[in-house]
Amino acid sequence: MKLCMIGSRGHCHYVFESLKEVPFVELAAVSSGCEDSPQRLLDGAARCGFSPKVYDDYREMLDREKPDLVSVDGPFDRHAEMCIEALRRNINVFCEKPIALDFASLDEIEKAHAAASAKIVSMVGLRYEPAFQHAHELVEAGAVGKVKLIGTRKSYRFGVRPDFYRNRATYGGTIPWVGSHAMDWMIYYGKSGFDTVWACEERSDNFGYGDLEVAAQCLFRMSNGIIAQASIDYLRPAAAPTHGDDRVRIAGTDGVLEVAGGRIMLIDAQGEREIPVPPPKRSLFSDFVLDVAGERPALVDAPQTFLLTRACLAARESADTGDLYHFGK
């Protein structure tokens, strides 16, 4: 399979981390897709043993190279455009999340996908972290009984961020960017779409970063009755031992499972105990490639990708307006 890569603003490292697991994939060409330097892409390619061509125009790259796969990680506000261009060429798309920053663009991606045979998924890498992946296996096996409540936390250090984070038009908002991981956990563990969401957000004391929201809360009712909540912030102190504090609590009729700091704790009729975390069975990019190759279904698919993106945009709209958002209306 031939792979091309567009941009390196987010999590393109998922590609480089698992290329060795799919040795039949050739990284043929890269393009920054904007004014950014392609050097990060070239450095990652070199570490994996590739010397790809470099294109200034990503469309020319897609037309000339005719890849089977494309990684889309350019400017956030151009994800949708790039996905549509690839899908119209029937190229399988591995895209940074969220794949669109507005409902109209998401609708256009869905139309392009429906007209193609190519697949599309977003870079929901936290599904594939060992503790979260094993927690899903435990929930599927009935460890907590019937899931009733999902609580999530996404807290990041702020650090120094590029100027495009200052503008809603180019950043998209903290709920879609940071909160997308939390909403993906809801879909992953809850196995459902959404009925309603109410959200709120706060921009004050955001370190001088213009439109950027420094904190947010989202409360969802899922279609199957599960209540799901996301706590989202950039308030993790610089001295914290890790960049992110990623947590999930899943409460069900037979127990409660919590994931934090790479560990899993379970309390049920037998009491409270830590569950050992085995090595992950899958990684994100190679899982997508093997799905495209027809070897096995990946842990994420296009319908879940569209559902996640719609949830991100709906929560952001609720936070912007102060109104409860009803899905499907």
Q: What would your notes on this structure say?
A:
- Helices cover 32% and strands 27% of the residues.
- Helix 4 (79-88) links the parallel strand 4 (69-72) and strand 5 (92-95).
- The model has no long low-confidence stretch (mean pLDDT 97).
- It has helices at 13-18, 39-47, 58-65, 79-88, 103-114, 130-140, 168-171, 174-177, 179-190, 284-292, 302-321, and strands spanning 2-6, 26-31, 53-54, 69-72, 92-95, 120-122, 147-157, 194-202, 215-222, 227-236, 244-252, 255-260, 263-268, 271-275, 325-326.
- It has a 9-stranded mixed β-sheet. A 6-stranded parallel β-sheet has the order 3-2-1-4-5-6, sandwiched between helices.
- It has 2 domains: 2-123, Rossmann fold (3-Layer(aba) Sandwich); 129-326, Dihydrodipicolinate Reductase, domain 2, CATH 3.30.360.
- Helix 4 (79-88) packs parallel to helix 5.
- It is built from 11 helices and 15 strands.
- It is an alpha/beta fold.
